[in-house]
Amino acid sequence: MKRLIEILCEKKVFVFLVIFVIVVAGIIAYQSLKIDVFPDPSPILVQIFTESEGMAAEEVEKFVSYPIETSLFGLPNVNKITSFSMFGLSTVNVYFDDQVDIYFARQLVAQQLPAITAKLPEFVEAPALGPITTGLGMVYIYVLESNLPSIELRTLQDWVIKFQLQTIPGIAAVMSQGGEVKQFQVIIDPGKLIKYKLDLHTVIERIKKSSKNITAGYIVRNKEEYIIRGLGLLEEIEDLKKVVVKEVEAIPVFLENIADIKPGAAIKRGEALLNQKNSIVSGIVMKLIGVNTSELIEKINKKIVEINAGLPDGIQLVPVYNQALIIKAAFKTVSEALIIGIILVAIILFLFINDLPSALVSVLSIPFAVFITFIVMTITGMTADLMSFGGLAIGIGLLVDATIVVVENISRNRENSKKMECDSKSIMSAVGEVLRPLSYAMIMIILSFIPILTLSGVEGKMFRPFGFTLLVAIVSAIIYAVFISPALMNCFGARKLFSTAFIFNFLKKTYLRIFDFFYPRKKMVVVGFVLIFIFSIVVFFNMGSEFIPRLNEQTIQLETLLPQNTYLKETEKVMNRTQQLIMEFDEVERIYGRIGRGESGTHPHPVNMGHSIIILKDRKYWKVKNEEELIRRIEARIKENIPGVLLNFTQPIKHNLDHLITGVRADLAIKIYGDDYNQLMVLADKIKYILEKISGVKDAQVTRVSGQNEIAVKLKRENLARFGLDPSDVMEEIEASFGGKNISKIYQGDVVYDVFIRYGYEFRKDLKDLSRYFVHSGKNQMIPLSDVAEVVETTGFSSISRENGKRYIAVQCNVRGRDIGSIVSESTEKIYKSIDLPFGYYLSWGGQYELKAKAEKKLYLVLFITLLLILILLFDYLKSWRDILVILVNLPVSLSGGILSLWISGAYLSVPSTIGFLALLGIALENTLVLISFFKRKTVNTHDFDRAIRDSVALRLRPILMTKFTTIIGLLPLLFASGIGSEIQRPLVIVVIGGILFSIFTTLLLMPVIYQMLFKARLRDR
Asked: Mean per-residue pLDDT for 844-873?
């Protein structure tokens, strides 16, 4: 290694060429970096959607969800399977291990679909896989603005706009929401059925058989083939009207003779609103997993310009939600922190180093390391986001540490030897003095960050890019310090900056006075630091905890929940009123709302549930202090004007991630598992009552599943047999006449419309109509439904949730003004004191706490292993437990500094703060190895031990202060940043800054005292 350093000192041109190439390549790499919000923490999830029109939640669970679940339990690498059954739809979620490729996981599930389909009833549609997207997948929402009827706009959206957008590579799906889906409706007159002695089943079969194309091979004429095609598909409404349903004395009875046939709107289970406008048509763009969001949105914007240019006059696509705005804001937060950190660190170096070349060489280590990191990020395909750039921003101060140690020693050796010009031997001697301890110190810093790369699950996906970029930058900085900085110092020589010398001289005099006061008072110093450590332990065990601080997306999502029997139009009315109230706030720019579900996507919802995305204006227009105050005011105004509505405030990305990762739409949830849903509801209400009494719990609510109004038609099988009726035919007639049924298609070019059959509204508007309903027998008899079935009003379940084969109900809540950990501890104690769970019933915590508990186990294990590896390294370097003990006194006090700084700032223990403690393990010991080497060198042959200790810390004061201050100064921009994403980085920054501040005092005050106590008597005896 020394020989390589000597060669580089001689080959000055080569060194500058290497630097030039790295700078140019780094700039090119930076320009080609893809930007995003943060790494996608979504699980490897495959969703299966199964439409089952007209089926209640209990039937969906029994006939669809449960058979699908049981068919998938044997798949390899499956973590859990959950299902959600609601009116007309089953959603089954299959979660795989993180190491499984998403496409392989989808292939495993897709292979099971044919067998699953065979198990399902004939009246259920074939199950289909959901789009290949994630919790960050909803990247773009647009609406169609026009005065045209919504049915025409929805047709345009479904058959023109949607397909044009889906041609963009990287789009997984474009889901339509709102408006009215056009179909051709056959409105049956039951009186005409009686007149012509027809049953509904026969009519349906005739319509089904009336639309068909065939091929009949070919014939040869004049040596040419002519393909024979039978063209019988329904293409116009007139074709449908002329369908023959019966012949009476050789006279055909057409469909138009027994029904009113006309275009109409399909039954809706969802709606969309914008700024109080009802029934708008919108599109929700879902990105493909792994696709860069920023690039995709650029393509979408360009495509929308093209689409708008080709649309008829008066129709325009208008974006209402764009994830690129969040991405740019988040990137701005970390990039500004990075740039400001570099500038501040450079200023500190020039102020502390009384030598222009030394300061310049030290500063150059930052761009060198940063550019190499950009190059590596580009090669590995990593995106520039909150985490990857956050790692660089946090590491800015660390990047100069190794160079400071080398350069400062070179500068000091020159000064002592009075050789101000280039001197290779002097440089090599200075590098040799610090190379070994510096190498071990840097290895320990690297070791403290490597465990971040071992994290798995959500925290691993979030923070591995952070650890990777930080490690690449630190390794690059070490390479620069050891190999490049000596060569540059050899080129530049020395130029004194006497104008800044007074700063360090003042700090040195101040420190030595403090040292002279505390060094003789050893007991006071040791007891003082021990008390600080004990106090920090007490604080630690009483400190709140959370998973990851909430990312402020500067967009609010409001979930509105009404009673489960609420009709779609009523929900729309309430949502409209809600939007009206919210738009009264000056801070709100616009609101996009969606109710229920449009097409089957990642988040199917019932019609009594609405979601509003509240787009906020720039902060300069705000009249409230912060977002929390705005939420409080919005909530108060809505509840004042619309009593009884349940509200849940969150954010779009957070909502989607929480729903996919934890299965709940709030910060915290208690899942109660059991078989009897009625018993589960009783337990859930009791738990909700307990939660509402706990400080910090907001928006507590139980998943509303009971009390769904139903009209049950229970067949009398003996009577059916007496009249010769088949149960399935009876059920089909009831389904088609009252609920309606899609029975055929009409093809008009590329557009396909459903043919929908149903009784007229006047024959199915209330319960009496169902009781007076006539069933057609095979003998042309008209039998009252009351003779073959019992029609009763009852209640059922609106939805049923299952996890790993077990039913559950969730009691969910949000947390404000308090940490999640303490709320869970308090509520767990109160719940188990107040409630006796029946046999077979149990609780588990979901939401953010579930993720936090999993992360803590891994992080504490990693923390222990890291500490063990550092101890092994220390023993390898020092070969003495006394030396190790002197060094290790830095660790507990530095960790105490991190704990106390969290406590003072009001932050909580979290994954970022724990990673900060990991970082402290290496940073706190950074200067100790070099300092203890000076202790040993100065005290080995001295007659004045205490004087030697004082001279050692005085010599190392400049590099110690510079390395510590540059790290702190480099972190200050992130500490005071207020943009999107700053809240995630802040706990880590607080821990590191607090730990470093304490480590300065332990290194400069406690470490000399401990060394004197352990070694002075021993050396005197020699």
From this structure: 78
